[in-house]
Amino acid sequence: MSSKRLHMTANRMGLILPTVPLPRAEFDSLAFSEEEIEAEAIRLQAAIQQHQRWPLETCRSIAPLTLEINRLKKENDVFLIAHTYQTPDIIYGVADEVADSYTLSKAARDAPQQTILFSSVRFMAETAKIVSPHKTVLHPSPEAGCSLSDGITAQDVLDLRAKYPGVPVACYINTTAAVKAECDVSVTSSNYMRICERLPGDRLIFVPDRFMGAHLQTALAGKKEVIVYDGECEVHAVFTGEKVREWKERIGENLSVLAHPECNVDVLEEADFVGSSEKLIREAIRLGAEGAPDVMLITECGTAERVLAETEDDLNLYGACVMCRHMKATQLEDILQALKEPRPDQIIEIDAEIIARAQRNLDEMFRLAE
Ligand code: 13P
Ligand code: SF4
Fold first, then answer.
1. Does the Cβ of 121 fall within 6 Å of ligand 2?
2. Which residue has the CA at smallest separation from atom 8 of ligand 2?
């Protein structure tokens, strides 16, 4: 049996893993037998692998919801995509695909199903619609935004283009469809360095993440000038290099620091590994398997929850994660409601002309990333 331990402290940097999302109201479970509910609860608990935070009783209260969602998905041939930062009941209970934003945009593009339900923030669901405009894309929580995508408009990009004529514009995928339509190419946390390096010319405008932009400025110094916008992720902006150094002093040289590139440069300078949510998970699991169990994950809490679920090896996760309130806005009940009877604001609609221009941007991302 695994002896995975979780050393997380509530401090200025963050908090202990988020509260387990119990159903808001009792769900009418009459459609399922007691045996079906029990078997589903056991399946959920085994998949989530956090027996104390997710006791069987909690899994039992969730089981009728996951059973009903999975039944409806099958009946209506729906492909359910969830980002890593969704809660474990969604990830291990009902999702067909879980990954970082790059892999999820490819999964949405390639899914044979005509209906996609995207459990995540709005820009990701919009991206799914751009790459597969003929499909119906359901987004259960229309209010779930993102401090990066909400911090820049299409006009802001037009203003930058007017100020720096002819300079290519790369946008982080955390942007609206309207912003993507004004940019040349999107990048994600798994390919921003590769794509920006491959863009023509010796100048580049990067929007909207100032931290990722600063990372690009450092990495491309001498090769390219990077003009950066001033947006930031409200979650990753919380981490500081000073706190990471404190943990390094406390734990010692065995500590591996894994950070998301939305963090400040002073955090990234302390990191042994920088990567997308999926790459951080794979690296943490690899370290555990190779007998290097002291790991600090500098990112949103969902990453640690997936690491705990997806390894049997000993792993000591140090530090504190930060929760994204936008990502955590979606609960199983919202997914069920959107599957049963989606409201108009839960069906992604984007102007055809914007889709066509944003699609060119994303096609360019796929071309340059591979
Ligand atoms: P990933 O592509 O690494 O999953 O990042 C998406 C995101 O919003 C991180 O905050
Ligand atoms: Fe946006 Fe940050 Fe939340 Fe990711 S974690 S969705 S970048 S606010």
1. yes
2. 146
Give the ranges where the chain is alpha helix by DSSP (H).
34-48, 56-76, 88-93, 101-110, 122-131, 154-163, 177-182, 192-198, 210-219, 241-251, 265-268, 277-289, 301-310, 332-340, 352-369
Is the pTM value of this prediction over 0.90? yes
Q: How far is the CA of 22 from the centre of ligand 2 (A)?
A: 23
pLDDT of residue 9: 41
* Tens digits of residue pLDDT in 107-149: 999 999 999 999 999 999 999 999 999 999 999 999 999 999 9
Set out the domains of the chain in order of their start, with CATH numbers.
19-144+327-346 (3.40.50.10800), 149-232 (3.40.50.10800), 236-318 (3.40.50.10800)
Dist. CA 31 → ligand 2 center (Å): 37
Distance 74 CA to ligand 2 centre (A): 30
CB of residue 324 inside a 6 A radius of ligand 2 = yes
